[in-house]
Amino acid sequence: MTDKNSRPIVLLYPPPSDPTQPYSSLPALTGFLRSHGFKVIQKDLGIEMLNELLTPASLRKARDLAVNRADLTDPESGSEYFERYYGIIGLSDYIIGHVDEAKCVMRDKTQFSNLKRYQWAANILGMACELVSLPHHPTRLEPYSYETDIELSFKGLFEGTSGRFDNLFFEIFAEKVVPEILKLNPLFVGISTTYHFQIIPAFTLSRLLKQASPELYINIGGAIIQDMEADLLLDPKWFAFADSFVVGEGETALVRLAENLLAGDNPGHDVKNLISLVNGVPAASGLRWYEDMKSLPCPDYEGLGLDQYLSPEPVLLLSSTRGCYYGKCAFCDVTKNTKAFHRQMDNGQFTDHICEMHRKYGADRFFLCDDAMPPAKMLALAKLVTEKLPGVTWQAEARFEKVMTPEFLSAVKKGGCRQLSFGFESASQRVLDMMNKNNSAKLDREILDSCAKNGIAVNLQTFIGFPTETREEARETIDFLIENEEKIASIGFGIFSLFKDTPVHKNPEHFSIRDVSISPSLFGGCEYTPLSGMTLEEIEKEHKTALEIISSMYNVRGFYLSKAMGAHSLLQFSYYDYPALYRIWKEMGAPRWEDTVDMGDTVLNRNPSLMYSSSGEPAPSGLRVFCSDTGNQFFVSSSEQRLLDLCDGSPMGDIASRWADEQTKDFSGRIVFMTRAFASLREFLRKGLVISGSNA
Q1: Does 75 fall in a domain?
Q2: Which residues have CB under 8 Å from 496's CB, separation 6+?
Q3: What's the DSSP call for residue 566?
Q4: Which of 200, 332, 446, 541 is the most interior residue, by most CB within 10 Å?
């Protein structure tokens, strides 16, 4: 067998990824492979590519391409393009001139802790992503996500990875990333893919690597590949992208794969959790393999470059368990995706890993990314922090449990807990029972109250439209989110989606649904018809109506560069007590950049109906207002400029009332939204707004 260190294994995490912290998959795989003697090079291409794209040179190139595309685009057929174009191109000089400064703000603790400065930087970086992706319209890159019209099917992936203009990453992969990887002369390349929006970049990269070096062995794995298992086994054409795919856990699979490659054996021989071609036919390697959590080494972040992330200090992810310890929620596909029973480290191993990561990387912030962290693990971590690591803070995903008494929550807060994310789902007890949550709505509220009293920030995941849910039950959840907004740091508020192999899918009669059909998309949900409760149309209407109200309350807080349970939320909750942070959010009262740049029907946004003349020619009218103090922009139509005349120093609510008297009821709602976000147009003008006229 060839020396294990003769050629490196190269592990790649494709873009986009969270720009504020490394994801946990590469360090977990790297630690395991290195513990078996292999040389590993790990690269988070998400942050590497973002740092490459968000530079003055790249942004100037993108602007030039966008201007050229505007010259070639028919105004009527390209109306959506021009909506984006006019929203960002006039600010391009400012964005280009300040993008490096914005990145510095995110990496400097003093500036990061100044939330007004932070808000400005987050907005500039968001608009920089919009500018760099504009030439690739309709593709849209955000700091942590990627939207494209490329269909997630084999046909769509094959066409979309062949160099189409809307594939933002094709050129930079071909010209920069692929040559750099090939110079490393890898034993094999492993691409770990977690989210559906990484599929296009991941398969673009693997295809380009295969074209440049057909003999290079490529494996693709990660959580999202599990959803492709049936498709991979049906069609050998998938293997134009990679030599094999890992479906399930990858540590032992990659070690065995590497050993086979070094020995010159059939690489896929006897590799658990692997799908590869056998005599030209896709085949799985046998029974599913589950790792013994107690034998896993500490995640190894060495070589990942923690200083490249847009955070002032490292926030590291660690999972103390695999599989959900409850695993019975009727709607959930987490257990289905992992196909794993619940396993966990013992408390000693878990706390040893925390201590090792603290010592090696200087990490004081940890995100415990278990599907649901057991309460006993929370107490073990709190005890460790209290006794040995007093500066450490952490956040976790959790279930509402009876053991979460006020005393429990006081102990975990003292032991570093700063935020908990709960699957609240619904405020209706009957709906919770239908979901098989095994939760008491009354107890859930009591735990939420105790979190608030102890200063623990809370993220609630909720949705409406579960089968049999009535309009009145949906409104219980909506009313709860409105009435308790001061206790809730952030929310997820969506609509029920039916996924294959979940309890609802397997037992449609019990949940009063019929006509269930599986989506042809690789990652789509199932279509169905409800037999009781709200219709699908009623669910959509209720959600849209509620979202207008809820968004106006929750979008003025947590303007994070990452998600509400990302690195920046933990950092802000570590630097500020939650009540103090809540007051600051309310005082600042400005939404994120995408809320002001994206199309919408509020006065804060550019109204598509005002952007084009009857002939279809782009004809923006009125004022486009940009605040260089916050990085926010908004559009005021010609009729709405009347507001400027009304801004006479009166409280904004009085001004809105006077304005509402002159407008329709619908328009009044738009003004109410505006008053929540801005203290006064005159005040913004006084602070030095950049105001552009109709041709900006």
Answers
A1: no
A2: 331, 463, 464, 465, 466, 467, 469, 539
A3: S
A4: 200
